[in-house]
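User: Could you check the structure of this?
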Amino acid sequence: QYDSVAGLQRDVGTRLLDFLDRPAEAPRAVLDLGCGTGFFQAGLAGHYPGARYIGLDLAQGMVDFARGRDAGAGEWLVGDAEALPLAGESVDRVFSSLAVQWCYRPDHLFAELARILRPGGRCVFSTLGPDTLHELRGAWAAVDDHRHVNRFLPAADLAAAAGSLPGLRLRLETERYCMYYQRVGELLSELKTLGAHNMNRDRPSGLTSRRALQGMLRAYEVRRCDGVLPATYEVIFGVLEKA
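Assistant: Sure, the predicted structure tokens are below.
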């Protein structure tokens, strides 16, 4: 059911396609890092016709779904972005939309990208910034001190990680996306379907009490405007180039 609720993911990924370049020498291999259901395989194939497409995701179920969608569309791998199962200097371009936010060791991630990219290679990626879902975070803060919402790395941390590795150049820019809901429950259900589980170490253990949940819902209602509830996403777009 992932694609049925992945509106933001489609919008951000489509925007990320605009960051792809058209080099004089056509790329031989393109990696879709965090490919999910393989939704952007067609867009990448259209932009880089003739390139070998490799879709990679940490989730076996996602890879199985993507492979079943069109078995002949490319190659599909299960793997970790911080330990890529690919040979050194084997990829020309990397496309990664809304997957990097789950990598909390950006130095490991960028080191792996530097390893697999050929000289002159490039990675375009989108990730979530720390202001993502600040409305939901604020509503939970009104009822307890636990972290109920994932926190993501700021752009400064990404820039520092890339800057610590020789031969890499990183350019970043930030855009904000706002989604709207009739009820907070719609947002929570969407996050669950997307698999965006709370990864914080200090997340609450056990089930959240009904009283705490009702308190959060009341706190979120204060933000209702024009009949809908907003949910903001801070999206960071990056272009990583290897000398």
